[in-house]
C-alpha cells in the first residue's frame, strides 16, 4: 500500500519532516521510490527540464498526463501528486474538476494548484468531488514570473500578511498541504505554525514541515537555472558528459564494441552458412 493524504497530515502531527521529490519519468521516479520518499511530485516544471520550454506556461494537460502516467507506474509506497498546468483550472470550476479527474485517471493521488484566496472556491469544488488538493503559494511559476520575475515573496509586512491570509484560505478550502515557494523563512515559519496542515518548502527555509527539490536539480543534471535554494548532491552533468565523450571516442577509434559486446554464431552453423552462400 502506498501512502495516503492522511499519512502525510499525520506526519506533521507527529513532528516528522516530509520528504518530497519532483520527478517526471519512470526511471528516476523508480530510483526515488526505493528510498521511501514520502511524495513524488509530477511538476509542470517538466516543461522546462524535460521539454526545453523557457517557463511552465506552455505545458499542456496532455503532457502532464503523460508524465503523471510514467511516474505513477514507478510508485510503490509514495504518494503521487500532479501539477495542474496553466489554464487547466483558471477558466472555470468545471474545467478544474474535469482536468483534475484526468490526472487522477492517469495515476495521481492528488493534484496541485497555484494560488491563494483567488482559487479557494475552485479548490473547494475539486475537494468536494473527492480529489485531494495540494496548495501552492509564494512564488508561483505559472504567473508570478510573468508579472514580477523570479523574486522572493513575503519580504514586506503587506505581502507577508497576504501570504498568511492565503494559507489560511487554502486550509479552509480543504487542501491537505501547501507548497511555500521562495517565501522568506520568517513568514514560512509563521504560516507553518498557524495552519494544521503540512507546509512543503522550496527555498523557504527549515521551519516548513517538509521540503521539495527537483531530482534533476539535486543531481546536477539541469544547468539552465541554478536557484540559490537548490543543494546539489551530485554533479551528474559532468559525469554524463565525460561518459558520452568516452563513448564517442571509442566508437571513432574502433575500441567499442569489443568482443564481449557482440553476439556470435556457433562455428558449425557458420561453416554451413559459408558453404551454402559460397556454392
TrEMBL record:
Cofactor(s) the record lists: Mg(2+)
Residues at the catalytic site: 181
GO biological process: coenzyme A biosynthetic process; methylation; pantothenate biosynthetic process
Key words of the record: Coenzyme A biosynthesis, Cytoplasm, Magnesium, Metal-binding, Methyltransferase, Transferase
Annotated InterPro entries: Pantoate_hydroxy_MeTrfase, Pyrv/PenolPyrv_kinase-like_dom, Pyrv_kinase-like_dom_sf
EC code: 2.1.2.11
Major site of localization recorded for this protein: cytoplasm
Pathway named in the protein's UniProt entry: Cofactor biosynthesis; coenzyme A biosynthesis; Cofactor biosynthesis; (R)-pantothenate biosynthesis; (R)-pantoate from 3-methyl-2-oxobutanoate: step 1/2
Cofactor-binding details, from the entry: Binds 1 Mg(2+) ion per subunit.
Catalytic activity: (6R)-5,10-methylene-5,6,7,8-tetrahydrofolate + 3-methyl-2-oxobutanoate + H2O = 2-dehydropantoate + (6S)-5,6,7,8-tetrahydrofolate
Binding site for Mg(2+): 44, 83, 114
Any one cellular-component term (Gene Ontology): cytoplasm
Binding annotation for 3-methyl-2-oxobutanoate: 44-45, 83, 112
Localization, UniProt: Cytoplasm
GO MF term list: 3-methyl-2-oxobutanoate hydroxymethyltransferase activity; magnesium ion binding; methyltransferase activity
Pfam families in the record: Pantoate_transf
HAMAP family: PanB (MF_00156)
Subunit structure: Homodecamer; pentamer of dimers.
Role description: Catalyzes the reversible reaction in which hydroxymethyl group from 5,10-methylenetetrahydrofolate is transferred onto alpha-ketoisovalerate to form ketopantoate.
Family membership noted in the UniProt record: Belongs to the PanB family.
Official protein name in the record: 3-methyl-2-oxobutanoate hydroxymethyltransferase
Biological source species: Candidatus Nitrosotenuis uzonensis
Amino acid at each position: 500500500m502506498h501512502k495516503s493524504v492522511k499519512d502525510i497530515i499525520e506526519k506533521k502531527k507527529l513532528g516528522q519532516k516530509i520528504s518530497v521529490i519532483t520527478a517526471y519519468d519512470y526511471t528516476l521516479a523508480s530510483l526515488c521510490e526505493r528510498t521511501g520518499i514520502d511524495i513524488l511530485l509530477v511538476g509542470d516544471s517538466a516543461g522546462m527540464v524535460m521539454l526545453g520550454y523557457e517557463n511552465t506556461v506552455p505545458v499542456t494537460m496532455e503532457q502532464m498526463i503523460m508524465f503523471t502516467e510514467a511516474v505513477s507506474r514507478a510508485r510503490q509506497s509514495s504518494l503521487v501528486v500532479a501539477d495542474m498546468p496553466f489554464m487547466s483550472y483558471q477558466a472555470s470550476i468545471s474545467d478544474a474538476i474535469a482536468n483534475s479527474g484526468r490526472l487522477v485517471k492517469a495515476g495521481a493521488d492528488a493534484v496541485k494548484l497555484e494560488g491563494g484566496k483567488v482559487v479557494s472556491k475552485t479548490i473547494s469544488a475539486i475537494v468536494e468531488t473527492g480529489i485531494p488538493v495540494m496548495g501552492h503559494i509564494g512564488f508561483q511559476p505559472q504567473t508570478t514570473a510573468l508579472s514580477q520575475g523570479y523574486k522572493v515573496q513575503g519580504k514586506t509586512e503587506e505581502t507577508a500578511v497576504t501570504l498568511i491570509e492565503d494559507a489560511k484560505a487554502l486550509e479552509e478550502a480543504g487542501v491537505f498541504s501547501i507548497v511555500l515557494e521562495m517565501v522568506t523563512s520568517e513568514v514560512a515559519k509563521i504560516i507553518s505554525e498557524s495552519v494544521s496542515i503540512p507546509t512543503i518548502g522550496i527555498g523557504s527555509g527549515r521551519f516548513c514541515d517538509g521540503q521539495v527539490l527537483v531530482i534533476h536539480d539535486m543531481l546536477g543534471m539541469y544547468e539552465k537555472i541554478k536557484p540559490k535554494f537548490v543543494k546539489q548532491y551530485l554533479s551528474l552533468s559532468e559525469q554524463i558528459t565525460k561518459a558520452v565523450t568516452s563513448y564517442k571516442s571509442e566508437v571513432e577509434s574502433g575500441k567499442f564494441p569489443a568482443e564481449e559486446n557482440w553476439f556470435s554464431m556457433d562455428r558449425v552453423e557458420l561453416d554451413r552458412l559459408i558453404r551454402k552462400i559460397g556454392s
